UniProtKB/TrEMBL annotation:
Superkingdom as given in the UniProt entry: Bacteria
Species, as recorded: Stenotrophomonas aracearum
Signal in keyword set: yes
Name the record gives this protein: DUF2388 domain-containing protein
NCBIfam families for the chain: conserverd hypothetical protein
Pfam families: DUF2388
């Protein structure tokens, strides 16, 4: 019983956050405003936005792979040599530790 409640909670959290995250990201991209200094904050946003997906991934032992986690893993591997050597689970745990 407890296990099914935990699984439901893990699955429900990313879905509820998706709507608010989508609304915020689409509103920002529709404005077309950007600056040269925003790229590093955009990179940080990719990683921060993936924390809920990373939690679901770690809790499910890799069974649940969200789109935000996939984007963050790709970004981390493109920007850091150490991340290229780490497993997906190790990177997901490091996202949660930030």
């Amino acid at each position: 019983m407890t296990r099914s409640i935990l699984l439901f909670a893990v699955l429900a959290l990313p879905l509820s956050a998706f709507a608010s995250s989508f609304a915020g990201s689409s509103a920002g991209s529709a404005s077309g405003a950007s600056s040269a200094g925003s790229s590093s904050s955009d990179d940080d946003k990719v990683v921060v936005d993936a924390r809920e997906d990373a939690a679901a991934f770690v809790a499910s032992d890799g069974a649940i792979r969200g789109a935000r986690l996939e984007a963050a893993l790709l970004h981390l591997r493109e920007t850091g040599a150490a991340a290229r050597e780490a497993s997906d689970l190790q990177l997901a745990r490091s996202l949660l530790a930030r």
